[in-house]
Design goal:
Blueprint: H1 2-18, H2 22-36, H3 40-50, H4 55-84, H5 89-109, H6 121-127, H7 131-151, H8 161-186, H9 201-231, H10 236-241, H11 244-260, H12 266-285, H13 297-303, H14 306-322, H15 325-360, H16 366-395
Helix pairs in contact: 1-2, 1-5, 3-4, 3-15, 4-11, 4-14, 7-8, 7-15, 9-14, 9-15, 9-16, 11-13, 11-14, 12-13, 12-14, 12-16, 14-15, 15-16
Membrane topology: Multi-pass membrane protein
GO cellular component, one term: membrane
Protein name: Efflux pump protein
Length: about 400
């Protein structure tokens, strides 16, 4: 499954680079997301089946956790370099080439993990997958994200009749989903996300935490980039270089987390890392335009990956400890989907707030008006970080430590 998903990811990545219209880019980007969703849950199963509980599993999850936030930051850096030099398309070409090499290497280096079944794959495809549940959730989230995307340029669009109808349909589908899950379980049929999964308080807490955590991370990276380029007026390349602090800190945090995870309570790791990351949006919300990079922007970028990197590793180890092997891939898939949804919602909400504040101001100076909106977005990100602190404190209080070696 991982190999298939990774090769599809390569195909759609290259397709984005060759796209000629915005519609093509959006379409291939959607398929790209579907392809990578085949890899993320599988990674949890591969790690838990390859490494026994203990230091090496902790290191494996830490390295896996480093991939998402660090990859996003590295993408910003390389994207800026390519955009200002040989063109933005080469960012996708290079990513496609690198992923093709990694996908090919994985054929020989990744272990084979099979779930025994007497059914042929064609029957498993039709009988062991909750297709209707997948359609309900996909349509609900798709409609919700469409409405949120429409409001990013102007909050007034949420009052359009079309958007109101789509929002109501989305909410109704989301409300219907748990009843469908219950119905499927009662019939002993496959359920996409069984309601029983949410009864594990630690799992529910980490999912809620990672939703707001990823919303914060995406938001601060996006609006810090806008601050550099739209307010300070520097190039994409110069902006990308400023994110090196983000990458360095993310790497160090993951290495430290691999060591601390079996020695420090997950509640402590979650709360302390979230408190540290809370400083980042405050620095950007109170920054003076034109201020020296080393005063506020550097420290904001330096501190912002702390909680996402810690939380991702902690969450995967909580999942591997809380669920049996046959459920871990499902739980990992749900966790990753929540993280990606938080990414999208966070960006849409903060962009809407920033646009709303800027539109309401009558200040003539364009940069100053933009900055007022950005400050509002950064304070919203601060609120999201504060929610992570609260959820981690109360939701993980019984979590203890994870990742200890079995005797």
């Amino acid at each position: 499954m991982w190999v298939i998903g990774s090769y599809l990811f390569v195909i759609f990545t290259l397709a984005i680079g060759f796209s000629q219209t915005s519609i093509q880019i959006i379409l291939f980007r959607t398929f790209q997301g579907a392809a990578i969703s085949m890899c993320l849950p599988t990674a949890v199963s591969l790690i838990t089946n390859t490494f026994a509980k203990g230091p090496w599993r902790n290191v494996a999850f830490a390295m896996n956790g480093m991939g998402q936030p660090l990859g996003y930051a590295a993408g910003l850096v390389l994207g800026g370099i390519f955009t200002d030099t040989i063109g933005w398309r080469w960012a996708y070409y290079m990513m496609g080439i690198i992923n093709f090499c990694l996908s090919t290497a994985s054929i020989w280096f990744l272990p084979s993990v099979h779930q025994h079944s007497d059914k042929p794959w064609s029957r498993r495809l039709t009988e062991d997958i909750d297709w209707l549940g997948a359609i309900i959730m996909s349509v609900a989230l798709g409609l919700l994200m469409y409405v949120l995307a429409m409001t990013t340029s102007s909050y007034k669009r949420v009052g359009n009749a079309q958007n109101i109808v789509l929002l109501v349909v989305s909410i109704l589908l989301l409300a219907t989903f748990p009843f469908w899950m219950r119905f499927q379980v009662k019939r002993a049929r496959p359920a996409l996300i069984p309601n029983e999964l949410w009864k594990n308080s630690a799992f529910s807490s980490i999912c809620a935490s990672v939703f707001f955590c990823w919303a914060s991370l995406n938001g601060i990276e996006y609006f810090t980039t806008l601050y550099f380029q739209k307010v300070e007026g520097i190039t994409a390349f110069q902006s990308s270089i400023r994110f090196l602090a983000h990458i360095i800190m993310g790497t160090c945090v993951n290495i430290a987390t691999a060591y601390l995870i079996s020695r420090v309570k997950v509640q402590t790791l979650g709360v302390v890392s979230a408190l540290v990351t809370m400083i980042a949006p405050v620095l950007m919300a109170t920054i003076k335009v034109g201020e020296n990079y080393w005063f506020s922007p550097f420290w904001a970028l330096f501190l912002s990956p702390v909680n996402p990197d810690v939380l991702f590793t902690v969450s995967n180890l909580v999942i591997s400890d809380a669920f049996p092997p046959d459920i871990q891939s499902l739980a990992g898939g749900v966790f990753n989907e929540v993280a990606q949804f938080g990414n999208s919602v966070g960006l849409a909400v903060t962009a809407s707030i920033a646009a709303s504040i800027s539109d309401h101001k009558t200040i003539q100076d364009h940069k100053e008006r933009l900055m007022l909106g950005y400050r509002g977005a950064f304070w919203t990100i601060f609120s999201s970080c504060a929610l992570v602190v609260i959820i981690s404190f109360f939701g993980l209080r019984k979590g203890g430590t994870v990742g200890k070696k079995e005797e």
